Amino acid sequence: MDRTTTIILLSFVSLVLGALAIAIFIYxxxxxxxxxxxxxxxxxxxxxxxxxxxxxxxxxxxxAKRNSSIKQHSLFIIFDQPSERSDERLTEWLREKGARYxxxxxxxxxxxxxxxxxxxxTNAFPPGEMPDLLRGxxxxxxxxxxxxxxxxxxxxxxxxxxxxxxxxxxMQTHFSGxxxxxxxxxxxxxxxxxxxx
Length: 197
Description:
With 197 residues, the protein is an alpha+beta fold. The chain has helices at 3-52, 58-69, 84-96, 159-175, 189-196, and strands at 73-78, 100-102, 107-110, 119-124, 127-128, 144-149, 178-180.
């Protein structure tokens, strides 16, 4: 077999294999992705349907609907007297709670009862980034913090909400500051009941 024939034969085999790969993609992968997407949408719709129309527990559907519309719970603790001393107390408190610092997002995370859904602690003024207090990073005194957590998908998995509320109350007492809800209004027992669900 001469060189030209070999090149033509290899080109033909390449074209056939390429066409075969495209056929497999069109007839196998694309429908599989569509079925998978449809299954996810059906599962999401059935969860929504169950939470909205469960005849067995009419009282519990209201908080479940409320929680499903909330992307995350937010509480703000404003320190009465921000200073180096309040920063030291905050650092000690974070160590006691086993907080870890996320250097990419510049926030602290506390695992609580559900490490997959940690409680986030971030700066309230200005909103966002926290200095790495555990490593002694220099900064202006922190004036307040935000406590954030995502609500659970299922009401029976709300142990993290209890931890979240307890941490917020403890933080308010520890720093004798004002606590505000997501609408920047003072928190009440109703606020905590809504969070816990």
